[in-house]
Amino acid sequence: MEIATRTLTRTTPGGDQLVLIRIFAPVEAGQAWECAYAIAWPHGLAKGSASGIDGIQALQLALQKIGIEIYTSEYHRSGQLAWKTPGDGYGFPLSPSMRDLYQGADRLL
């Protein structure tokens, strides 16, 4: 079951392209919980998931994995990607070792 979405925009001289992020409800997976997500990049769909001790941890780790995928993408590095305001971040947390990648308002997370 989908529980949340966010749409980013890739801006190019040829026009804008939407990047849809979908997050699914954590589900019990044996002794752990798993939270799946999908990112519809212009070049194709990327699916991932994160596992945790409970649903909250699985969701938190999925949000961090999404943040890492966004901040390490070529779309971000090229400056083509934005959420609300270009250069102001995407609203996803990063793991502590990756926080130097934050930009804009994401530095407040």
Describe this structure in words.
The protein is α+β, with helices and mostly antiparallel strands. It has one domain. It is 19% helix and 41% strand. It is built from 2 helices and 6 strands. It has helices spanning 55-71, 74-77, and strands spanning 2-12, 15-24, 27-29, 32-41, 44-52, 81-82. The two termini are 27 Å apart. The mean pLDDT is 95.
Rg measurement, Å:
14 Å
Quaternary structure type: single chain
- Give the amount of beta strand, in percent: 35-45%
Domain module tally? 1
Biggest sheet statistics: 6 strands, antiparallel
Protein name: DUF6968 domain-containing protein
InterPro entries: DUF6968
Pfam family, one: DUF6968
Task: Summarize this entry quickly.
The protein has about 110 residues and is an alpha+beta fold. It is about 20% helix and about 40% strand. It has one domain.
